[in-house]
Amino acid sequence: MEIAKRIINEALERRASDILMDPRSGEVYKVRFRIDGILHEVASFPAGQGMAIVNCLKVASRLDISEKRRPQDGAFIAKLLDREIKFRSATAGTLYGEKIAVRVFDVQAGLKDLDNLGLNQAEADAITRVVRRSDGMLLIAGPTGSGKTTTIYAALGLLAGQGRNIVTIEDPIEYPLENASQTEVNPRAGITFANGLRSILRQDPDVITVGEIRDAETAEIALQASQTGHLVVSTVHSNDGPTAMARLVDFGIEPFLITTGLTAVLSQRLVRVLCKECRRSAKISAELRREAARRQIALGRVGVAVGCDYCEGTGYVGRTGIFEILPLSQRMGQLLTEKASLATIQAQARKEKVVTMRQRGMEKVLQGITTVDEVLRVTT
Q1: Does the CA dihedral 197-199-201-203 come out positive or negative?
Q2: Burial call 329-358: b when 16+ CB within 10 Å, e when fewer
Q3: What is the pTM of this model?
Q4: 292 vs 355: CA distance, rounded Å
C-alpha cells in the first residue's frame, strides 16, 4: 500500500492526468504517467509486486480483487492538506495479466475560467454570445483528452448567479459545480445519456449539458430541446466543425433538425506550452513571417523547446488550447439540408473564412507560446 501511495503522490507532484500500470512479458509491470498529454515511463516492478500494487488500487476503488479478466470501473478519493482529489480506475485483462488505468481529477488544476483556456478575445466573445442565449446548441468537438469537458465547465461558469436552472448528465462527473445539478451516467441503474436527458427535460431546465453525444437518440433529443427554449451544451468526438456536422447527419438526424437547433461548433486541441526556464529563441522562417503578415500578428519571441530540470527535460510545462469556431450559417444549413459531402462542407467553411485550429496554433507559435512541432502534432 505504501508503494501505491508513493505512486499517487508522485503523479500529483508531476501534474499527471493519468496513471497507467501495464504488465509486460509476464515478468515486469511498467508504470507510466501522462503529463501534458504525453506518456512518460516512471518506474517498473517485478510482476508479483506490480500485481500487489494493482490490487491495492483496486481495493481503494472498491473493485473485486478476485476478478482479473472482466473489466471493472471504480473510484476513490485522496485527502490532502488543502483539498480532496478524485480518482477513477479502470481495469482490464491482458495477455500477461491485469492492467489498471487511473484518471486524476484535481479540481484546482481542472476548473478554469473561459479567459484561461487559451481563447483569444474574439473567440471568447463569440462563445460568450452563444452561451448567454436562451436556446440553441453549442457543440464542442475534439478527440479524447482535448479539454472538451474543461471548456464546458468554463462556459457554464459564465452563467453563475443568473438565475438559470443548469442541469447536466455526464459520464463521469469530473468536478462538482456549485451552480448546476449534476447526474452521472450509470448503465447498471438504467441511466444512459438518452433516458437521462429525457428525465432532465422534466426538471424545468434552462441550460442542459450532455457530456457526450454518442448516438442518434441522444442527438435527436438534444437538438429538439435546443429548439424549445433550452440552451444545450454538449460534446462529440470528431476532428473539427465540418466533421462534427457530418457526423450528426451520419447518425441519421434529419438535416432540418440540425440546421434549426445547432448554433455553433467549437473544435479544440491542447498544445504544450514552452518552458519559461529553458526556452530558447528560434530563427523565424520565411513561412512564419508570411503567416504573421497575412494574419496581422506581431512577431513575438518565437521559441524552441530545449529541456531542463524544471520541465523534466521535455522543454514544455503545461498546456493551452487552440480553437476553431464554426457558426451554422444559412448557407451551411442549406448544404446540410442537401446532405452535401464532407468536402463540400469543408470548402464552405473556407469560403466563410473560418480560422482553423492549425492557423490558431501558428498564432501561438508567433507569440512564443508553443512550437511548430507541437501544433503539427495535434492538428491535421
Answers
A1: negative
A2: beebbebbeeebeeeebbebbeeeebbbbb
A3: 0.89
A4: 14
